[in-house]
Amino acid sequence: MIARLSASKRGLTIAALGTSQTVGWASSYYIPAVLAVPMADSFGLSPVWVFGAFSMALVVSAIVGPWAGARIDGFGGRGVLMLSNIVFALGLCLLAAAPVPAVLYLGWAVVGFGMGIGLYEAGFATLAGIYGKDARGPITGITLIAGFASTLGWPLSGIMLATWGWREACLGWALIHLLVALPLNAWLPSGNEALPKPATPEPVGPPPSRRALWLLAFVFAAAWFNATAMAAHLPGLLQAAGASTAVAIAAGALIGPAQVAARVLEFGLLQRFHPLVSTRLAAAAHPVAAVALIGFGGPAAYVFALLHGAGNGIMTIAKGTLPLSLFGPAGYGQRLGWLNAPARVSQAAAPLIFGAALTGWGVNAVWLTAGIGMAALLALLILKRS
Fold first, then answer.
1. 301-327 and 136-146 helices cross at what angle (nearest 10)?
2. Phi, psi angle pair for 126, to nearest 5°
3. Is 332 exposed, middle or buried (0-12, 13-18, 19+ CB in 10 A)?
4. Which domains does the chain have, with CATH numbers?
5. Share of the chain above pLDDT 90, in %
6. 195, pLDDT greater than 70
7. CA-based torsion, 322, 327, 328, 329: positive or negative
């Protein structure tokens, strides 16, 4: 069954799920950068309040992630992913119709629920249900496609904002969920082809050690703290290092291509190595970039952006492939939800914490993220292959 699915539908499955993931990321994680200010202005609020609502959405996603993973483990991922499109559309419609800030916060909470059941963790768990231990390639494939979520999402949100307004932009994304992403997720295989069947149960090995689970949860939390801190403050950090505004913006624009290039490398050359190897390389990238920035200042802005982006690109894949390789497909979805819950919380806190460090320490704030990255690398060195 698995081999037949891999031969006939593998490419189409990756394309469909990658496209629906692109819509999910573009309409949730990436809309505050474009819509937060006009949202806040319409209510007479500071944009901080909207970013606070987005942080709340990330916490909500962390809470519901393990539940969604358990559902995917038991019944496959297609139904959960389809539900996520409906939930996303509902949350976006609440944002669009919000008459007061309280309803705006409610809308973000619903969007957060959609993120918890519809973004990468759910997509990875769905692929593990379809392909079992052979899901590494498909996981990398959907991240290659969804890696362009900001590249496509930010301009599209900007066009809808300029043409109609922020409320209509939210409605536009809701329609895209219902008309594009929902049918694509409905077309997917059920997502339980590789799950053990009661009639022919697969051998069950010993449960993962608590130490290994905690180490991996810390690695993901550290990686996503750094990624979110850089997403929020990279231009300011590079300018503090001596780069001009134009150089800082140009260097920031390299992060997306660097992520995709690193994922192509993972899809090809690094496939022959254990995921632990590529994850260790990814964890080392940001500390090395930080040393270059501190040592050479503004001229190292491009090097910093390329190294950070490449490490972040591979680490995104590692969120799915490393737990699968270390612990196997049994109980994968729920385990992935628990492993990534701390990462969602660290994402919510990162912009505030790193922003305060940047204000107080200037370019030396990068030692904070470099130290966190080194701690993650140490944790990965302690982890052993299954």
1. 150
2. -60, -45
3. buried
4. 2-187 (1.20.1250.20), 210-382 (1.20.1250.20)
5. 45
6. no
7. negative
Q: What is the distance between the terminal CA atoms of the chain, rounded to a whole angstrom?
A: 26
3-state secondary structure of 197: strand
Cα separation of 311 and 211, whole Å?
24
Measured CA to CA, the distance from residue 97 to residue 290 in angstroms comes to 43
Q: Angle of helix 120-131 relative to helix 301-327, nearest 10 degrees?
A: 40
Res 8: pLDDT: 60
Give the tens place of pLDDT for each residue, 205-263.
Answer: 556 688 888 999 999 999 999 988 887 788 889 989 998 888 888 888 788 788 888 88
Which alpha helices (DSSP H) does the chain contain, by range? 2-26, 32-43, 47-75, 78-97, 101-118, 120-131, 136-146, 149-163, 166-176, 182-187, 210-240, 245-252, 255-267, 275-296, 301-327, 332-361, 366-382
Pair of tokens at residue 323: 């737990």
Which amino acid, residue 139?
Answer: I
> What is d(CA 369, CA 283) in angstroms, rounded to the nearest whole number?
11
Q: What are 147's two structure tokens?
A: 């890696």
Helix (H, G, I), strand (E, B) or coil at 199: coil
Q: Is 90 exposed, middle or buried (0-12, 13-18, 19+ CB in 10 A)?
A: middle
The secondary structure of 63-129, three-state, reads HHHHHHHHHHHHHCCHHHHHHHHHHHHHHHHHHHHCCCHHHHHHHHHHHHHHHHHHCHHHHHHHHHH
Residue 159 makes CB contacts below 8 A (sequence gap 6+) with none
Residue 329, helix vs strand vs coil: coil
Q: How many angstroms separate the CA atoms of 324 and 304, rounded?
A: 30
pLDDT at 2: 47
C-alpha distances (whole Å) from 194 to each of 12, 16, 143, 267 are 18, 19, 21, 22
Which tokens belong to 272?
Answer: 């022959």
Higher pLDDT, 201 or 28: 28
